[in-house]
Amino acid sequence: xxxxxxxxxxxxxxxxxxxxxxxxxxxxxxxxxxxxxxxxxxxxxxxxxxxxxxxxxxxxxxxxxxxxxxxxxxxxxxxxxxxxxxxxxxxxxxxxxxxxxxxxxxxxxxxxxxxxxxxxxxxxxxxxxxxxxxxxxxxxxxxxxxxxxxxxxxxxxxxxxxxxxxxxxxxxxxxxxxxxxxxxxxxxxxxxxxxxxxxxxxxxxxxxxxxxxxxxxxxxxxxxxxxxxxxxxxxxxxxxxxxxxxxxxxxxxxxxxxxxxxxxxxxxxxxxxxxxxxxxxxxxxxxxxxxxxxxxxxxxxxxxxxxxxxxxxxxxx
Length: 317
Hints:
Elements: H1 3-11, H2 30-42, H3 44-49, H4 52-66, E1 72-76, H5 78-95, E2 102-106, H6 124-132, E3 141-145, H7 152-163, E4 167-172, H8 178-182, E5 185-188, H9 203-222, H10 239-253, H11 257-266, H12 271-280, H13 284-293, H14 298-304
Parallel strand pairs: 1-2, 1-3, 3-4, 4-5
């Protein structure tokens, strides 16, 4: 593609559109600029809401594959890539997933998280190599993320993943995008032109973050990583998370501090196991067995264990 062709293509994108009414924004008082930005951001949730049926369908497809052992892989460049890496990196401490279960790929690799890597986003071949290193299977799901919906790295990732039989999702912020067209599940969240022309880390980035939050969080809910709205698979890797673990067990069981400390000690700090032990009266190994037989779903394990024992002070979850 020539430079002229690329300029013409960008000029046709909603996310790149120039807004003449904001041409003198730099002359406005700071508070007025802040109000303008806040007003722009307020429209993002509505744009996401318009695509909820597509988002939900994509989530169900991802959850079905992950339940069979598949992985969730994000692929993008620049801001889109960083958002994917961010979402992936937050799954292990939040949901106790294996670091290889949710993966974020960014064009140019780890250095691109903090600095631009020249030409990386323009390479579909680089996306193919990055995905080949993961040894994709049909149980895996690949989400290409690109505000423009034309980034070669993201489009190439989706095209390659689809060719090897993996589930594909294309998340863009322009209609009729190449990325959505290449994927089985196209999600186009159209937020309109940016306050600063072409700065898609703004509304487009916010929209992408909201959708990625949904993809990972609701998938984890479907996989039994929560009990009600409690993070029962949280990994207690620091003092704050250990305190949170204790509080989660308290909220789920109504047990006192001594009972909770004892249960967490006997279950190796596993929140889900401790809750099951406290509610059913089983020991740590039995709780582990019941959860394994229930594919990690606490509600199903409670049913297998005969339900909350008489006198258990279960809160309403």
